[in-house]
Amino acid sequence: MSRARSRLRASLRLAAAFPRGVTTGVTGAREFSARPAPQEPGMEYQDAVRTLNTLQTNASYLEQVKRQRGDPQAQLEAMKLFLARSGLQVEDLDQLNIIHVTGTKGKGSTCAFTERILRSYGLKTGFFSSPHLVQVRERIRINGQPISPEHFTKYFWRLYHRLEETKDSSSCVSMPAYFRFLTLMAFHVFLQEKVDLAVMEVGIGGAYDCTNIVRKPVVCGVSALGMDHTSLLGDTMEKIAWQKGGIFKRGVPAFTVPQPDGPLAVLRERAEQVSCPLYLCPPLDALEDGAPPLTLGLEGEHQRSNAALALQLARCWLQRKDRHGIGELRVSRPSLLCQLPLAPVFQPTAPMRHGLRDTEWPGRTQMLCRGPLTWYLDGAHTCSSVQACVRWFRQALQRRKGGPEVRVLLFNSTGDRDPAALLKLLQPCQFDYAVFCPNLTEVSSVGNADQQNFMVTLDQVLLRCLEHQQHWSRLQEAAAGPDLWSAPSPEAGGPASLLLAPRLPHPRGASSLVFSCISHALQWISQGRDPVLQTPSPPRDLLSHPVASSGASVLREAAAVHVLVTGSLHLVGGVLKLLDPSLSQ
Q1: 8 A C-beta contact, residue 359 and residue 296
Q2: NCBIfam families, from UniProt (predicted)?
C-alpha cells in the first residue's frame, strides 16, 4: 500500500496529468472527522445523522462481519439483544405483516413495485431499504415517502437514548452498528405509525442479515441472483444462493424468479429443509396474455422480472390476509424448469396495474432530460446488472437520435467489486469521454452529514479512481490497437497511467479525466447547459489539461449530450443531490 500511496502523491504533483481542480483539498488534513459538529439552531436532523455516522458506516459493518463470520449466528443473537434493549421482542415484529425480500439484482426495485401495488389497495405501507441516495431518512418510508426530518430526529434520539440507558458495562459494544441501528429504528417507526404492512429489503445476503430476526413474515421473495459481496457471501452462485435462502421460514410462502440451475437447486433445498413452499414466478408475459400489456414505472427490460415477482408477493400477501381483489386465476402451467412448482397465473387487477405504472424508484434506470443534456442514472454495480444497464442505455439512445451527439460515462466502483470487468462491459456504449470521481458530492462533506463516509481518506478514493482510469485506458488501447495511441511523457504531462490521449482521430475516442468530487465532474460535463444544475464556481484551473479544455468545447457545441452515471448507487445519489435539489429538502 505504501508504494501505491507514493505513486498517488507523485501523480498529484504532476499538475498536467489532470486539472488541478481534481486535487483540491487532497493535501493537508486527509481524514474525514467523525466527531459530531456543534449543535446549531434548526440543525437537529443533521445532529442526529452525525451521531448516527459515529456508529460506523456500512463499509465498517462489512469489515466487522468479515472478521466475526466464524460465528455468524452470534450476529443474529446480538441483534435480538439490541432489539430487547430497545424495548421490543421478536414476537412484536409479527404485527408488521412483513414482506421480506432478498436477491442480488433488483431486490430494491421489487420492493418498490410491491409497496406501490399494495398502497394502491388503500393500505398503509412501511418500506425499509438501503442504501440511501441523498438523505438517510429515505431508508425508512411511510406510504412511499421518506419519513420527515422531524420524525427521523424524534425516533432516532428516542432509540439512541433507550440504548444508552440499557447498555451493559460488561459489554464492549453498547451501540449497534450503523445498519443495525437503522433496522431497529425502522421496526420502531413502523410499529408506532401503525402500518398495515412493512416491506423489508435485506441488506446483505439473507441468512445472517440483521433483518432476518423476523420470525413470521407473511411472504418472502428472492430476486435475480448474481456475484456480489463475494468476500462475505461466498465466491460461487451456489454459496450466495445458500445465504439468500436463509430468509425462508417454515410454512411461509416464498417466490423466486428464474435462476441458473445450480443456484435454483440450492434455493429449493433450503426451502425443503424448513418446509417452506417455494414457487417459481411465471414471466410477466403469461400474466398479460389476453389482456392489455402492463405499463411499468421503471424502465428497462430487466424490470419485467422484478415486476413479475412483485405481483406474486403482493397477491400472496393479500390472499393470506383475506383481502379481496387479488386477481382472477387462469389455468396454471407446470414449471418449465421442473425444479419448482409454478406460481399462480392470474389476471392483474386494476390496483395492481396502477401500482406497477406509478412505481418510482430513483437512481435505477432513471432519465433526466435537461435541454441538450440527458442524464441516465443507474446504480448497477455487478456484472449482470451493468449488462442490463448497457441494454437499457443503448435502447434509450436509439429512441433519441438526431444531430451531433456526445456520449459521456461517469463511473465509480467501490468495495470488492471488479472495476475492470464492469468497465469492459460498458465499452459497447462507445463513449467519447470517460470521467471518474469518488462518491463525494464536494471535496469537503462537513456540511452534509447524510453523505459523509469516515472509513476512507481522500487519498484512498482518488487512488481508486486513478486505477479505474488505468483499466479504461488499457481497454481502449486493446480495442484500438497499439499504433493508434500514445501517452504523454512525464515531461509533457505525466505518466501514461493517468490519462490516455488519442494521437489519431477515432470514432469514439477514449479521452478520460479524473475529478476530485462529483460537483467538479458535473461542472465539466454540463458546461453550464443544464438549467437546473447549481454548483459553486469551478476552480479556475479546471480546464488546465488539454483534454479537459478541448472536451469542454465539444460539450458546449454538441446538439445532444448523453451522460450515463453508473457503477455505484452512492455515486448516483451524489449526482442526484446536485441535479435535483428538491431531494435535499
Answers
A1: yes
A2: folC (TIGR01499)
